[in-house]
Hints:
Number of domains: 1
Structural class: mainly beta
Shape: elongated
Strand order of the largest sheet: 2-1-7-8
Helix content: 10-25%
Number of strands: 10
Order of helices and strands: EEEEEEHEEHEE
Strand content: over 45%
Oligomer: single chain
Radius of gyration: 20 Å
Number of helices: 2
Amino acid sequence: MQNSIGGHEFLAILGNIVPTRERLLPPVQRPGVDGTGIRKAGNKGSLFTLISQVDSATIDSARAKAELYLEQIDADPVVLIISDYNFSTQDNWKVKVYDVRVRRIHGIVQATGGINDPSGAFLECEWNLMAIAN
């Protein structure tokens, strides 16, 4: 199964996604006029947090990956794929990366499988994202 943010592949992406959705502006009420006016603001995103997990060949290569993730902060919105579900093509939105923080990097006993076989390190990052309509 593919899990990726902006082309960076992960073993897993954890957390709750907040898609774009149509929002209503505060109701309009004028003194002396009956009724309430409702206006739509269009599709708007909200910030949400996801956790990415990936293996790496070494601790140094895990640190280098984390540095690459930081480049997404100033970039255009990117494609989010979780468990082979592409939100850009199937729900018509991408994500803007607002922040990426390393939660942990640690060595592991040589593991097989994963994305970067053989794996000697593990990287977990916290991503602050906002859904942006395509």
